[in-house]
């Protein structure tokens, strides 16, 4: 029997649907609202949910077509149920439950974060136990995964997420949405000359202070009509941020005595982050590019690991 899984991801502004055969991704179609949201300077929850409603049928049809199956072939449906924007999550859940009713099968809720935790292992074998860093626009946390059904958060952010901080600083620098990748595109290590204080390694993440500090620096220069070196400010912030991540990861790697580190969330696509991870850890897993940001394939893969994998 073929176990075809349909997975739905609508936690934020990306409408994504994937088809998996067991743990193999057959298709993953994602429609983002970047162009629509760019004119507002960021994500507007009501607009994001309306875009999901607009896109989801076409994304579903494209995913089915690309996978080469019929909707009647689907054996399991899973969807992101938390965390995320309530309106966006509701669109995905409603679609999942409606389709499940039509096909007379069950729809399974999957934690969005667990999808990111397991996403580095898509197209490979998951190696437990491991430490996971999830650094995105919505959260920044470190987890210990003993198995797919035993994933524990050991440290989190007390305020802003790192991805959100990248975007807000990028916005203050005048970059278009999404602003974070623009800081990375213009990163020059030699220009990272501005020093920022480092927090204690064993404490929770906190990014509101650095966000306010950098934005105040930019605004002060604007008020004084001084030249604003976008590359210097952006590069200095990026180096500080990646240094903080590396310090925390090394601390928990030693604390939990594991040599396996997995990275998830949009910040994992950061070029400096990728370089530093390879230097610091012998065994590190980073998602393939198409799975580094929000996507339904990771939701389907998490479902497989939790419910279908023989060892569970």
UniProtKB/TrEMBL annotation:
Q: What is its main location?
A: cytoplasm
On whether tRNA processing is a keyword of this UniProt record, the answer is yes
Q: Binding residues for Fe cation, per the UniProt record?
A: 112, 116, 294
Enzyme Commission identifier(s):
2.3.1.234
Q: Which InterPro entries match?
A: ATPase_NBD (IPR043129), Gcp-like_dom (IPR000905), KAE1/TsaD (IPR017861), TsaD (IPR022450)
One GO biological process term: tRNA threonylcarbamoyladenosine modification
Cofactor binding comment, as recorded: Binds 1 Fe(2+) ion per subunit.
Which cofactors are reported in the record for this sequence?
A: Fe(2+)
User: What PANTHER family does its record include?
Assistant: TRNA N6-ADENOSINE THREONYLCARBAMOYLTRANSFERASE, TRNA N6-ADENOSINE THREONYLCARBAMOYLTRANSFERASE, MITOCHONDRIAL
Instruction: Name the protein family.
Output: Belongs to the KAE1 / TsaD family.
In Swiss-Prot or TrEMBL terms, this protein is called: tRNA N6-adenosine threonylcarbamoyltransferase
Please tell me the species this chain comes from: Malacoplasma iowae 695
The major lineage groups are: Bacteria, Bacillati, Mycoplasmatota, Mycoplasmoidales, Mycoplasmoidaceae
Encoding gene, per UniProt annotation:
tsaD
